[in-house]
Amino acid sequence: MNGGMEDDDSRTGYANPPKEHRWKKGQSGNPRRQRAKPPESTVAMIDRLLAMPVHLTINGEAKKVTALEAIIFQLLQKEMSGNQQAARTLLKYREFASRNIKKKLEITFLDNPYTNALSSNSPRSAE
Asked: By the 8 A CB rule, do 68 and 51 touch?
């Protein structure tokens, strides 16, 4: 009745794979669930690169230091030789470091009935 035309499901060719190779209903196109890694952020890339070890020769002695230490050492050397741009850059690094230094965690206990009851039930010896 279909006038010699083949069934749409049995056709093969461009964009029509054979029926046995088509995806089953509910089948994932990524069976191992391996998702593409998100691109690394600029900050993470800078942190990674600055933490990488590099070889540095100081007074004929080879040392392995982080890239950041090598940069700071080179800036110090240039600053001591009178390079004003190196001095300004080093000053900016110092200001940045002093602003972003980690603060100590400070815990303050409130004097209320709950904390008093909690401290009176503690297994510590009486003071």
From this structure: yes
